[in-house]
Amino acid sequence: MKALGIAATGMMAQQTNVDVISNNIANANTTGFKSSRAAFQDLIYQSMERAGAATSEAGTARPIGVDIGLGVQTAGTVRLNTQGGLVRTDNQTNIAIDGQGFFEIEMPDGTPAYTRDGTFQLSAEGELVTMQGYRVQPGIVFPENTVSIEINEEGTVLAYEDGDPNAIELGQITMANFINPAGMRAVGDNFLLQTEASGEAQVAVPGDPGFGVLRQGFVESSNVDVIRQITDLIQAQRAYEMNSKAIETADQMLNAANQVR
């Protein structure tokens, strides 16, 4: 009886669905987090009777076939790159992206990573770094006696030194974007990596066509809609229960067949 295997694939698919939803809910307060959804597709079909097969020597043909699907499988998890809300922090080194794009970060091994988390700080050397101490690209170093920092919408970084009313321009924060940001690989710590699916990074200045602008003193909250996630969780639970019921029913039918004398 195929129902046992078919329903089992449904239970495994809904378990994956619950895992994805749980991760979304767990990261509801993670800065710059983008929620995901599980996508599914049906498995191959076993054809018992093919549509169009001849049914008589007179040339009549079967208008429909008899095709039994063998279940469902997970096609992938789709990252939803919609804008999260901006939360004011009044921290001069906090930056939010309002629009499309990513900050480029230099990892310890020198490879680039990308993030929407603009919770930046200054290192002991005065460099703009992430919470893990990784350098924000391109590297910007602030003078030791900096008393105030200004970062405009286009990413120009200015510093005011103690006793000097004139600002010093230190550099330009650039942004990266991808033709398919959903194809980037998440590696934790709010970092994403470029893949063949995402395409090559396109680097530009904030405010350029296709790129967002920067908001100093803000961070981007996650785009997780908790109410929607709870609703999806209930639906996944009910679907899991229905597949479980299908297995129970198939088992009862097999048991009845075994009792035939």
Automatic annotation (TrEMBL):
Residues 215-259 form the Flagellar basal-body/hook protein C-terminal domain. Residues 6-34 form the Flagellar basal body rod protein N-terminal domain. InterPro entries: Flag_bb_rod_N, Flagellar_basal_body_rod_CS, Flagellar_FlgE/F/G, Flg_bb/hook_C_dom, FlgE/F/G-like, FlgG_G_neg, LlgE_F_G-like_D1. One of its GO terms (biological process) is bacterial-type flagellum-dependent swarming motility. One of its GO terms (cellular component) is bacterial-type flagellum basal body, distal rod. It is found in: Bacterial flagellum basal body. Pfam families: Flg_bb_rod, Flg_bbr_C, LlgE_F_G_D1. Residues 96-158 form the Flagellar hook protein FlgE/F/G-like D1 domain. Keywords: Bacterial flagellum, Cell projection, Cilium, Flagellum. Its main location: other. Belongs to the flagella basal body rod proteins family. The basal body constitutes a major portion of the flagellar organelle and consists of four rings (L,P,S, and M) mounted on a central rod. The rod consists of about 26 subunits of FlgG in the distal portion, and FlgB, FlgC and FlgF are thought to build up the proximal portion of the rod with about 6 subunits each. This is Flagellar basal-body rod protein FlgG. It comes from Palleronia pelagia.
